[in-house]
Amino acid sequence: MGKEIPRSFERVRTGEFTTHLKERNFTTVASLIAAGFTAAKYPGRTFYLSAGGTGSVPCMAVSDGTSWKQVAIGVACI
């Protein structure tokens, strides 16, 4: 028989985790902060920004515990 799947992986497998990520999309870092998501309050958290940190292209915002860092979304893989 296979290994028991830890609860954290079970959430990913069932789509529960990805559903949570889809609910938390913001346009810019300003809208993220206005919603109460400060970098200091949510260290290690990642959010999708549809208009990007600069307001022009989509990106990811990652908290380092002090400030939000912008991670560019590159070209398609396939």
DSSP strand content: 15-25%
Describe the strand arrangement of the main beta sheet, using strand numbers. Answer: 1-2-3-4
Q: What level of helicity do the residues show?
A: 25-40%
From the N-terminal CA to the C-terminal CA, the straight-line distance is 35 Å
C-alpha-based Rg, rounded: 15 Å
Apparent shape? extended
Record field, number of beta strands: 4
- Helix/strand order, N-terminal first: HHEHEEE
**Secondary-structure content class:** alpha+beta
The number of helical runs is 3
Q: Provide the low-confidence segments as ranges.
A: none
Average predicted confidence as pLDDT? 78
* Biggest beta sheet attributes: 4 strands, mixed
Structural topology:
Blueprint: H1 7-14, H2 16-23, E1 25-26, H3 29-34, E2 46-49, E3 59-63, E4 68-72
